[in-house]
Amino acid sequence: MTAPGELTDEFGRIDIYLFDQLLREHVKPGMRVLDAGCGHGRNLVYLLQHGFDVSAVDRSPEAVAKTAALAARLAPELPPTQFRIETLESLSFPDASFDLVVCSAVLHFAEDPAHFNAMVTELWRVLAPAGLFFARLASSIGIETQVVSLGSGRYHLPDGSDRYLVDESQLLTLTERLGGALADPIKTTNVQGQRCMTTWVVKRPRG
Ligand SMILES: C[S@@+](CC[C@H](N)C(=O)[O-])C[C@H]1O[C@@H](n2cnc3c(N)ncnc32)[C@H](O)[C@@H]1O
Fold first, then answer.
1. What are the two backbone dihedrals, phi and then psi, of residue 93, each rounded to the nearest 5 degrees?
2. Which residue's CA is the nearest one to ligand 1's atom 14?
3. Separation of 109 CA from ligand 1 center, angstroms?
4. 114 C-alpha to center of ligand 1: Å?
5. Nearest-angstrom CA–CA distance, 196 and 207
6. Ligand 1 centroid distance, CA of 58 (Å)
7. Has this prediction a pTM greater than 0.70?
8. Residue 151's beta-bridge partner residues?
9. Greatest distance between any 2 Cα atoms in the chain
10. For residue range 164-205, what is the model confidence (pLDDT) as tens digits?
11. What pLDDT sits at residue 45?
12. What span, in angstroms and rounded, lies between the C-alpha atoms of 30 and 107?
């Protein structure tokens, strides 16, 4: 039996769809991982404790400090220089540095299509051949009639927030433009009366 709290100690408050990738062994120990827009590092608790070579970036100094402190506690062997204050659209890591790039709840903060594409292009640049790109982002899929366009790809959502939204055809076009292949069908969770969150997982070819 698992005692109360043990699962959280092991996995943190990991995104359920990232957890699904772990369960299906698409994410394996030893992988070099970038958490892009890491926040406080909730998606890294398991990875840090299980030998993943984790790096993380966020534009918020406070977020990076929190994630770096978590890493120092759970994986003290990782160099602190792998936790960097920087934007997704301007990463300092060399090309093909990572086997897994995680971008959870960040891309919908894009200002416009150019900003969105700049972030995705950078994330793809640092992904190695045969690597996996995992993104969770807000979308208009299934709530097209409930969102109000603000222009430049941004929308007012039923939950009161303003976000950059993608739709299915944009994600499919982008997957093709990157030269990737969907690792899973695009999956969308409709949070009743609030927003839709889409999981977009793309495999980079071996090269
Ligand atoms: C909603 S939080 C998500 C944090 C974490 N990924 C998670 O799933 O809990 C969004 C984070 O993205 C960061 N962020 C937003 N736009 C960014 C950008 N262009 N470059 C780097 N970080 C960004 C914010 O500072 C914030 O920490």
1. -80, 145
2. 37
3. 8
4. 18
5. 33
6. 6
7. yes
8. 154
9. 52
10. 999 999 999 999 999 999 999 999 999 999 999 999 999 999
11. 98
12. 26
Q: Is the CB of 85 under 6 A from ligand 1?
A: no
> Is 29:63 a contact under the CB 8 Å cutoff?
no
**From CA 18, how far away is CA 11, in angstroms rounded?**
11
Give the residue carrying structure tokens 């301007």: 90
Structural domains in the chain, sorted by start: 6-203 (3.40.50.150)
In the prediction, which pLDDT does 2 show?
A: 73
pLDDT for position 171: 98
CA distances, 98 to each of 32, 68, 127 (Å): 5, 18, 5
Q: What is the DSSP letter of 121?
A: H
Q: Please tell me the predicted confidence (pLDDT) of residue 207.
A: 79
Listed as ranges, residues in the chain with pLDDT below 70 are 1
Q: Which long-range contacts (CB under 8 A, 24 or more apart) does 112-117 make?
A: 112/152, 112/153, 112/154, 112/164, 113/152, 113/153, 115/89, 115/164, 116/153, 116/164, 116/166, 117/174
Signed CA dihedral, 139, 102, 68, 48: sign only? positive
